[in-house]
Amino acid sequence: MKRFILLIFAFALGLNNNAQVKKAITPIDRKVTELIAKMTLEEKVGQMTQVTLGVVGTKTDGELDAAALKKAVDNYKVGSILNVTNHALSVSQWHVLLTQIADAAKNTRLKIPIIYGLDGIHGQTYTLDATLFPQNIGMAASRNIELARAVTKVAAKELRASGVRWNFAPVLDIGRQPLWSRFPETYGEDVFIGKTMGTAVIKAYEEDGLTNTTAVASCMKHYLGYSASRTGKDRTPIYLPEIEMREYYLPQFREAVKAGASTVMINSSEINGVPVHASKYLLTDVLRKELGFEGVIVTDWEDVKRVHDRHNVAATPREAVAMCVNAGIDMSMVPTDFSFYDLLLEAVKKNEVPMSRIDDAVKKILTLKYKLGLFDNPYPEKEAIANFGKPEYQALALDAAHEAMTLLKNEGNVLPLAKSAKVLVAGPAAQSISALNGCWSYTWQGKEEQWYPADSKTILQSIMDKLGAANVSTTTAKGFDDSKNYDAAALTATASSADAIILCLGENAYAESPGNIEDLALDERQVALAKAAAATGKPVILVLTEGRPRFISNIEPSMKGILMAYWSGKKTAEAVADVLFGDYNPNGKLPFSYPRSMGEVVMYDRKPTEEIREIFNDDVHTGYNPLFAFGHGLSYTSFEYSDLTLSTTGLKGDANLTITVKVKNTGARDGKHTVELYSRDMYASITPNMKRLRAFQKIDLKAGESKTVRFSINKDDLAFVNAQLKTVTEAGDFKVMIGNLTADFRYN
Ligand code: BGC
């Protein structure tokens, strides 16, 4: 009897617990359930269909084809439209276009609004005169979370002012393959930076509340492992052991889900032979069940089709549709036709996809539309226009570009140059705007300069602004590709009257597959220019505007100064000139290890056997030997660390470890500085990393000023993925490293 009572008690408790974990039904849930009950299968499948603007537009950008729009909305009941035809539109063009789309949806039986999505990757890409900021790789160099939040808020406002409420950003793919053409869209090679900036950005997009005109739905992408392509070529096979996937690629997404990301876009590639779009394991078991993601899962461009015709794991297009939807896809970016709609209808009728899966997908999509306020007002919000193009965004763009600038070399303090200097400005990036902004800048590839704001500056112009045109000579012409820019003989001939040469090399804009390269070497013409510049005997300052690290090992020794400018958006040129001539004290830190050669692409969080590969007699073969290390970045002042203290040398259980360090600006200039805290697990069941970034803080220090910086970490910050694929912290000895200081503690 006693046992029986106990059982009843336990059962009641269990019920109670279940009731607690069950989420309360919200008013939106109720509306969605009621609406789904009224929908036909066709209407549901239409909601899951996303087409590109070209399908409903004419060839003229911004102009809709009324008949095509009617067909898409009435016959195919499409739930979503994305993209531009060719290039960015003005705010008013967007308003006209999106009003017509909203009107079309209003005329349908259930009046379900259409959700429009765009790629505002570093600011609102596709609206003319929107403010463009540094690419993520540059934001990562700034190590400034508040700044990342601030630029994101502007992107959200300028999207929403354009009438668009869904942004396909941020990219959370980790940049561990420098060949990859989407490297600039990443936050670099480190997991911690990726997850802290990524989550900050997601919150910044969404935290005002999705009905607010200052917010948009974010889209974490590209789940999962997209950046790990073996060859670095976009959308090519990935082989990724699960332990590595969980250690380096998944944490950013796990945190982003916790931060409340509304949507996710899927990796176009295959992992270990399984196209991610068809992976029930990754989409449903990991993303939905393990990470608890409840938002919309959208495919990337044409990826359902590719499961059949490129990946060849589905024998027919319909099988591909069924495979992907059953795996967990909610919406298909078809996007150039309606095949997905037709095939999914067929698949449901043939019982290849259960109705429950369709209802589940539609529920997610409708919930998002309700949350965004589209049912109440599907039209572009006129009151949002005031948030577009505010003058202060320009100042913010300059702040962001300034903080991205990473000074890699400054031999003999050649920099800053005197403003009384006479300089020769050379190289293909000197008079290019696109090479300062990169991908997703008013066009997908970012190369068409006619769409950039009229007041965009080149590096040459910004230097002339500072020194006066009479003190600046150049051997360059407008545009990256003009043959004049590569005339080494002209450079040699013009150099004699200059005190220094500012050589602007790097990469012109590219995005995705068009940015695929065969190796990281800079093209020979650029190398020849650098050699010619060095041969003049004048000090050469190399300015790199590039999305990924191109090899410069062959020219680096003869360059006196090297400034990594990345693709830092609208104010790149001004920021470069400010740093070169001392109006801004640089403080960016490399978010990746700048490789020395193709055979030496080793990450900073290397393993012990990468640190010291082999010892033969006295011959030590070291591994981590990049040209410039992760975290490297010089300043015009100097910082000194002292008094590293730990609150305990015996950390226990879930307790916190407080770490403090004193930082002093020992130079003569004020400066910003990022203090980075690394840890090392000395021995572990899985070979430990030599170091891992666990925290960072950016501070401002006046010349001579000191500050004490405090960090707090706990066992979760020290965890790693073990052989059972569990994230664990094992007892043992650890080392904390800040600059050249170290301290030890034990975890039990
Ligand atoms: C890219 C995505 C992007 C989508 C829509 C794809 O080619 O991979 O990152 O969001 O196009 O423009």
Protein architecture, described:
With 748 residues, this protein is α/β, with parallel strands linked by helices. It folds into three domains: 23-387, TIM Barrel (Alpha-Beta Barrel), CATH 3.20.20.300; 405-580, 3-Layer(aba) Sandwich (Rossmann fold), CATH 3.40.50.1700; 639-747, Immunoglobulins (Immunoglobulin-like). Helices cover 32% and strands 18% of the residues. A six-stranded mixed beta sheet has the order 11-16-15-14-12-13, with helices on both faces. It has a five-stranded parallel beta sheet with strand order 4-3-2-1-10. A hairpin with a 2-residue loop joins strand 17 and strand 18 (619-622). Helix 13 packs across helix 14. The longest helix is centred in the first third of the chain and has 20 residues, at 2-21. Beta-D-glucopyranose (BGC) binds at residues 82-83, 119, 168, 221, 265, 300-301, 512.
Write a compact overview of the structure shown.
The protein is built from 23 helices and 28 strands. With 748 residues, the protein is an alpha/beta fold.
**Are any ligands bound, and if so which?**
beta-D-glucopyranose
- How many structural domains? 3
How much strand? 15-25%
Number of helices: 23
CATH class of the largest domain: Alpha Beta
Could you say which overall geometry the principal axes of the C-alpha atoms support? globular
CATH topology of the largest domain: TIM Barrel
Quantity of strands, as a count = 28
User: Cα distance, first to last residue?
Assistant: 44 Å
Please give the order of strands in the largest beta sheet: 11-16-15-14-12-13
